[in-house]
């Protein structure tokens, strides 16, 4: 019979009254060595619930009733071999911090502040842009796995999508570039001289040919004059 534990949860936050992408929560669920296949994550506007079983047979289970609403569709997840990292976008744009993570004022022994990510409310601008969230893929996990995490790295495979607010089509995973746009732009890159298939390369070659023929004609004329 496996042992069931409540994992340690750490959190920090940023806030903004005008920029949604700077108005979010960092939440880390410290459930080590839990394969994606043995983990389930449910995220709604007011709740985050995680359950998973580690390779050592330890089951981790936690449910977080949040202080206020979040936007599941624009939140991100990264599942590593050490923990499950979440960047949860707050639904309401507001300059003030949430006074706490959870709806309940009761102190939870498993919940701690992430001091590595925490900044005071009035020092957010001085802290600069935080690109932590940009390392994550969208829900379902195409990006941002810990390179040292092993086979369990990447997005969480067993997310309960029925509770994520109707994500349309899962197209355009966070952080994935438009490959067709990149390919189209290769022709104009400095120092890439004459890459095959680059846009405009064929036109440039054609434009240069008349000048070459004209130069050859002048050279032949000079040879004839000398002889």
UniProtKB/TrEMBL annotation:
Stretches with biased composition (Acidic residues)? 200-214
* GO MF annotation, one: protein-folding chaperone binding
User: Ranges of Gly residues compositional bias?
Assistant: 184-199
Q: Which domain of life is it from?
A: Eukaryota
* Pfam family for this entry, one: CS
- Signal peptide positions (record): none
Residue intervals of the CS domain: 4-102
Name a GO CC annotation attached to this entry. Answer: nucleus
Q: Where is this region: Disordered?
A: 184-227
Tell me which Gene Ontology terms the entry assigns under biological process: chaperone-mediated protein complex assembly; protein folding
Q: Which InterPro entries match?
A: CS_dom, HSP20-like_chaperone, p23-like
Q: What does the similarity note say?
A: Belongs to the p23/wos2 family.
What protein is this chain from? HSP20-like chaperone
Q: Could you read off the lineage of the organism from its UniProt record?
A: Eukaryota, Fungi, Dikarya, Ascomycota, Pezizomycotina
